[in-house]
Design goal:
This protein is mainly α. It has one domain. Helices cover about 65% and strands about 0% of the residues. The protein contains three helices and no strands. It is elongated. InterPro entries: Ribbon_hlx_hlx. This is CopG family transcriptional regulator. It comes from Geotalea daltonii (strain DSM 22248 / JCM 15807 / FRC-32) (Geobacter daltonii).
Length: about 80
């Protein structure tokens, strides 16, 4: 973990907290490191999703009704 850190209070469900404590013990890591890594992964996934949306911004929009109509016309519904 970086030397420049911020402190925050996070409330976990007791069972999740217990599982995190066990995981930290088994992995010889701090609970903070495990949670920090999980949050970084979630933010990285969000960044990938946003990039994918940006790449597709100029694609034509297709309504839900149009998709259903096409599926029905093709005998899939």
């Amino acid at each position: 973990m970086s030397t420049l850190t911020k402190r925050a209070t996070v409330y976990f469900d007791p069972a999740i907290h217990r599982a995190l404590q066990h995981k930290a013990l088994v992995a010889s890591r701090s609970l903070s490191d495990i949670v920090n890594d999980a949050v970084q992964q979630a933010l990285a996934e969000d960044a990938e999703d946003l990039a994918a949306f940006e790449e597709r911004v100029h694609e034509p929009l297709v309504s839900y009704e149009a998709v259903l109509k096409e599926l029905k016309a093709n005998g899939r519904l």
